[in-house]
Amino acid sequence: METKKNITNKSSLSKSNDKRSQLLLKVDNLMEKLDNEYGPFLLDELNKRLEKTIEDFNSDLKIILNQMFDAYDLRTEERKSIHSDSDNLTKPTFIAEYEEKIKSKKK
Predict the structure, then answer these.
(1) Is 2 a residue whose pLDDT tops 70?
(2) Which residues of 26-62 are buried (b: 16+ CB within 10 A; e: fewer)?
(3) What are the CA-CA distances from residue 106 to residues 3, 84, 98, 103 (Å)?
(4) Taking the model in full, what pTM does it have?
(5) Are 89 and 82 in contact, with CB atoms under 8 Å apart?
């Protein structure tokens, strides 16, 4: 009995494989036809869209970075104006000593 089942399973598998391979051939032919007719147009459009996306990303990134650096500069200036008299008190001693060495070398 097992041999009959194996034979019927093999024949049904081969039929489904044949159908699948025929469908894949048809799809392949259709894709090849689309590629020949619309391939250059689609590649050109894709290239334009990628360039536009990259340009938008670059401009957005520049805006964000400029805003961040401006905010950092503003905070730094505010800190300098607030702590200009007590500069040595807010800095660790090794940083204050290092800055003093640099100032003395420049003079």
Answers:
(1) no
(2) eeeeeeeeeeeeeeeeeeeeeeeeeeeeeeeeeeeee
(3) 98, 20, 13, 5
(4) 0.44
(5) no
